[in-house]
Amino acid sequence: MSGSFDGPVSRVILTELISTEPATGAMLWKGKAGDADAMVANARHAWPTWAAMPLTSRIEAVRRYANRIRGHSDKLAELIARETGKPIWEARTEVESVIKKIDISVKAYADRTPQRQLPSAPNMRAALRHKPHGVLAVLGPYNFPAHLPNGHIIPALIAGNTIVFKPSEKTPAVGEFLVEAFNKSGLPAGVVNILQGGPSVGKQLTANEDLDGVLFTGSAQTGIALNRQFADRPDKILALEMGGNNPIIVWDTDDVHSAAVLVVQSAFLSAGQRCSAASRLIVKDGLYDRIVREVKNIADRLIIDEPFSKPAPFMGPVIDNQVADGLTESFLALMSAGGR
């Protein structure tokens, strides 16, 4: 990534992004950071027409998008594997989730948003109906760069909102692929807009007063900052899906092997880069030695390799050297605190 320095504290503003494959270090994608205000203006201009379009037409549009993803599923899975480092088998499951989200969202909209008559006093009429919010920013993560932002974008589009989608600066190529799929599916110009860039571009986007909401998936640190930023703005929708420090508990069980398999799967799928991944193991005293021994035996047999290697790996590398260094520092801190 290249950029410039802004102000006395030397805050780096990224102007050019380069995405490299975690497994090989090869350059995968190169592009310029975008203009958040211009993308919000595009989405605002497109919103009245999109919101006024019949629901059936909006559903037809996202179904065309699903069909396009289905027709290019191998290409998208390969791109996800290359840009994230995850095994190709796991990337394929992510693409399947992208496609399935359309039917799930159509059903959910029908179940949750029908106009309903409400109890009211005599000679009065009360009804509940739903309207789109307007222009929504979707901030995507790097661990599931297609599935998770797609999970925000599809329901928002069905409901009549327009989108400014900022992918993680670590997975810009997958983000670009998704938006191209929307555009080539016949969605009107400006309905889905891509905004590439780093944290400074994200801050410019969320600071835009013409946004009607922010749908975020990412780190707890950024989510907390967004929560503070929008705490006094009840007029704007804010959805935050953040990482956690998740325990997995092994208590009364005679099947130590199956329990250990579940522990290893939870901890190491996606190289541990899941908000749902187990971070801590809590074990009943009488099971401790057997569970820890079996978890270690299984973990030692895991295949860790490049995404397209054979035999297929269970997991690949983490997303970049910064994340790898952070994991190493955490390991050393645990060992120095008495870990073994």
From TrEMBL:
Transmembrane portions of the chain: none
Q: Name one Pfam family in it.
A: Aldedh
Stored Gene3D superfamilies = Aldehyde Dehydrogenase, Chain A, domain 1, Aldehyde Dehydrogenase, Chain A, domain 2
Q: Does the keyword Oxidoreductase apply?
A: yes
Kind of enzyme, top EC level? oxidoreductase
The protein's Enzyme Commission number: 1.2.1.71
Please report the stretch or stretches of sequence annotated as the Aldehyde dehydrogenase domain: 21-328
Q: Which UniProt keywords apply?
A: Oxidoreductase
Q: Which GO terms describe its molecular function?
A: succinylglutamate-semialdehyde dehydrogenase activity
Its protein name is: Succinylglutamic semialdehyde dehydrogenase
- Originating species: hydrothermal vent metagenome
